[in-house]
Amino acid sequence: xxxxxxxxxxxxxxxxxxxxxxxxxxxxxxxxxxxxxxxxxxxxxxxxxxxxxxxxxxxxxxxxxxxxxxxxxxxxxxxxxxxxxxxxxxxxxxxxxxxxxxxxxxxxxxxxxxxxxxxxxxxxxxxxxxxxxxxxxxxxxxxxxxxxxxxxxxxxxxxxxxxxxxxxxxxxxxxxxxxxxxxxxxxxxxxxxxxxxxxxxxxxxxxxxxxxxxxxxxx
Length: 219
Hints:
Largest sheet: 8 strands, mixed
Number of strands: 8
């Protein structure tokens, strides 16, 4: 879901440049990986690199190609006064938060591992709320389910009713690399490879940056 807006934009640009039209379906990463592993017919899959590495081992995809890097960001309910500029400020804010949202998938797992390394996971556990697969953490914030939440920046910047506070403090960044791969069930293998090349080209860089990500492809 972190790449859904970006891919929608790039699919439109690809078609406008003469590429074969793409039918895009955006679902939660856990569900997408499960469906590809089950043999769903699909030409291209875009997922976090670690999820694609597992699908590569099972023979469901070809070699993944890095497309974009995304940072986990922090958002909160409007009117709250959480400070996040330094690690000490963020830890103090979390200690005072009534509820904390985090995502499914690799960024959520990495966040919990980070809390564990900081030695604060046990103190936060009773206040942690995991968003259901495919549900943005920003929605939980906007609905008042949680006060503060963590998710990919690209998933938070389009969410209404929240304050985007910014990235994790310097030195604490959680980076996810999103990659694309041709599926073994692909019916349009040549077009699929061409589309992935476009996702990794300089033609896609502006759109990637506008979604709060950094290009990971080739110039």
